[in-house]
Write a structure and sequence with these properties.
This protein is α/β, with parallel strands linked by helices. It has 19 helices and seven strands. It folds into four domains: about 5-165, P-loop containing nucleotide triphosphate hydrolases (Rossmann fold, 3-Layer(aba) Sandwich); about 170-240, Helicase, Ruva Protein, domain 3 (Orthogonal Bundle); about 255-345, Zinc Finger, Delta Prime, domain 3 (Up-down Bundle); about 365-430, post-AAA+ oligomerization domain-like (Orthogonal Bundle), CATH 1.10.3710. Helix 10 packs across helix 11 (about 210-220), helix 13 runs antiparallel to helix 14 and helix 13 runs parallel beside helix 15 (about 290-305). The termini are far apart.
Length: about 425
């Protein structure tokens, strides 16, 4: 079984344009020079046919499958295809069995390409381990999820991980131009496209070449030819072909974690404009508004704290209101909370204080509670100072403060900043000698 035996019977033109236009050489792969450029590790391994098992990690349409097929072509290895979404243990055993026969006869080495490898359970991944270990197969796994979290450690330790970048708009436009003139693509249709039409397809696809190419094909086959027999794709046709812009956002994967990270860091960085954009992306993609609200509550204490104590009140109120009101109106509530917190003065002094105190409790000697602060003091015969060792009630004094020991250490944990209301707190603590 080789790469070409995977091609469905019949006219190849019936396959989607993205499938027909898969690269046939390393040089035809665009946008991944960071891992495939001259002198790069993966490129050297492929050219020297010294490739070990690898995991290709990247967003949809970035070229993971295409790269796997090109590797098989360049190294002239048999190509076995599987998928984490549909394959089972029996399928994997059959694939390994065929690879073992090839190795025994010395006919050919085998690349086993597993798309969506993150969907394999531990038992399925464990089946591959000994055969990766002894070189029966060269594993090429593809995943849109971070392999550090979704691929078993033993399998990961036997593989090199290469991250593919989302394709730039310019790269996708180049791929679209190539498809319009390639015999495998749309050359027979006499297709031309306006520059703004190509750029719209590129931007709307968000780095996904497959989506852009298939949209171009829809535009070509659904557009009437002109008097000269050619087809011209305009911006309007491009918009109709790709329909509503899809947001790359997997609820349980990197899109989810990367976007919420950008949102929180924008609020922390006091940029309400960026915060609202990332909020809009999450809401547009269907993120749970309660999850967003909970993260804002945490941020209100961690990154704003006493610089603006009202921040926590706003965040908690927003969380309760989101629960009560529901969508779509909750987007207004979340926008108000996000912009308020982004525009508020920032301080992480409370966060640093508890982290440091917890570290001292965990790693240092646990300090005893001073006798005068205990709930109930026990007098003993050897406690001669028991009568004098009494708690002093602060409210009996002017300004309701009195000097007495509250902890047997000179450590200072809460160090208020000069931001917002914490400036007032800092002055007050200095006046008290705290």
């Amino acid at each position: 079984m080789d790469l070409f035996e995977q091609t469905p019977p019949g006219d190849s033109a019936t396959r989607p344009l993205a499938a027909r236009m898969r690269p046939r050489s390393i040089e035809e792969i665009l946008g991944q020079d960071r891992i495939l450029g001259p002198g790069k590790l993966l490129r050297r391994a492929i050219d020297a046919d010294r490739l070990n098992s690898i995991i290709l990690y990247g967003p949809p349409g970035s070229g993971k499958t295409s790269l796997a097929e090109v590797i098989a072509l360049v190294t002239q290895r048999a190509f076995e295809r599987s998928s984490g979404a549909i394959s089972n243990v029996a399928d994997l055993r059959n694939i390994v069995s065929r690879a073992q026969r090839r190795k025994t006869t010395g006919s050919q080495e085998t690349i086993v390409f597993i798309d969506e490898i993150h969907r394999f359970n531990k038992a399925q991944q464990d089946i591959l381990l000994p055969h990766v270990e002894d070189g029966t197969i060269t594993l090429v796994g593809a995943t849109t999820h971070n392999p550090m979290f979704f691929v078993n450690s033993p399998l990961l330790s036997r593989s090199l991980v290469f991250e593919l970048a989302p394709l730039s708009d310019e790269v996708i436009v180049e791929l679209l131009r190539r498809a319009m003139v390639d015999e495998r693509g749309l050359a027979a249709y006499g297709v031309t496209a306006d520059e703004d039409a190509l750029m719209h397809l590129a931007r709307a696809s968000e780095g996904d070449a497959r989506r852009a190419l298939n949209a171009l094909e829809i535009a070509a086959i659904t557009t009437r030819s002109s008097a000269d027999g050619n087809i011209r794709i305009t911006r309007k046709i491009a918009e109709e072909s790709i329909q509503k812009k899809m947001v790359v956002y997997d609820r349980d994967g990197d899109g989810h974690y990367d976007t919420i990270s950008a949102f929180i860091k924008s609020v922390r960085g006091s940029d309400p404009h960026a915060a609202v954009y990332w909020l809009a992306k999450m809401l547009y993609a269907g993120e749970d508004p309660r999850f967003i609200a909970r993260r804002l509550v945490i941020l209100a204490s961690e990154d704003i704290g006493n610089a603006d104590p009202r921040g926590l009140t706003v965040a908690v109120s927003a969380m309760e209101a989101v629960e009560f009101v529901g969508m779509p109106e909750s987007q207004i509530i979340l926008s108000q909370a996000a912009t308020y917190l982004a525009s508020a003065p920032k301080s992480n002094a409370s966060y640093v204080a508890i982290r440091q105190a917890l570290s001292d409790v965990e790693n240092g000697r646990v300090l005893p509670v001073p006798n005068h602060l205990k709930n109930k003091k026990i007098q003993t015969a050897d406690n001669k100072d028991a009568e004098n060792d009494k708690y002093i009630y602060p409210h009996d004094f002017e300004d309701h403060i009195v000097n007495q020991e509250y902890i047997a250490t000179t450590a200072r944990y809460y160090l208020p900043s000069s931001q917002g209301y914490e400036e007032t707190i800092a002055k007050r603590l200095k006046q008290w000698g705290r």
